[in-house]
Specification:
Largest sheet: 3 strands, parallel
Shape: elongated
Distance between the termini: 59 Å
Structural class: mainly alpha
Number of helices: 8
Length: 202
């Protein structure tokens, strides 16, 4: 049996941790003969980022004596693609998710050593990042969270003024109270869905 020759993904992660990468790193177990690293991530909304990252990864691979390839897909296709690669037991070595990929834990490698190295270099990992990638039951790091993005809710002021909340919802209870009104308005006028929704831009 030919010995597996693969680039050390932990070295790649450790190297890119300080850069503005966009990798969340549960990794499907794959046997590959040549020294390669295959990465899959979403197509960034800033296309120039993908151009920069692809070249960064390629240059890193060249310095390590490995061929690094980066594929990009639509954000909505990430989970479907991950399921397909798990079913086939082949695909990419590093797989980006934009939400905690706990369902894929059985197909991942423990990233504890990567987390420890990142904390050694940069200090303790944020609690949010830990809760997104660490399973306290199995005591495994099923991913590595290199970043997080605030996702504030937006609302259309004119619509919320109609129900007596000109400053928009301030609590979850406000959303519950407005639910019936928004639901009925949605049925009458589809464009209002974004106005009543707490996580869509108006």
């Amino acid at each position: 049996m030919t010995k597996r020759k693969t680039i050390d993904r932990r070295a790649f992660v450790a190297t890119t941790t300080g850069a503005a990468t966009a990798l969340a790193l549960p990794t499907i177990r794959i046997k590959r003969q040549q020294k390669t690293l295959k990465i899959l991530q979403w197509s960034h909304f800033v296309p120039s980022y993908d151009v920069w990252f692809d070249q960064y990864a390629k240059d890193w691979g060249t310095a390590q004596g490995a061929e690094v390839t980066v594929d990009h897909i639509n954000l909505a296709e990430l989970v479907t693609r991950a399921n397909a690669e798990v079913a086939a037991q082949q695909g990419h070595d590093l797989f980006q998710f934009l939400s905690p990929p706990g369902a894929f834990e059985p197909q991942t490698l423990d990233m504890a050593d990567v987390v420890q190295e990142a904390e050694r270099r940069h200090g303790p990992i944020l609690d949010l990042c830990k809760r997104s990638t660490y399973n306290p039951v199995t005591k495994r790091w099923f991913g590595f969270s290199d970043n997080y993005v605030p996702d504030p809710g937006d609302y259309l002021k004119s619509v919320w003024t109609e129900i007596g909340m000109p400053d928009g919802p301030a609590t979850w209870e406000d959303l519950v109270k407005a639910r019936t009104w928004c639901s009925s308005r949605t049925r009458r006028s589809r464009p209002s869905r974004s106005a009543c929704g707490s996580s869509r831009r108006a």
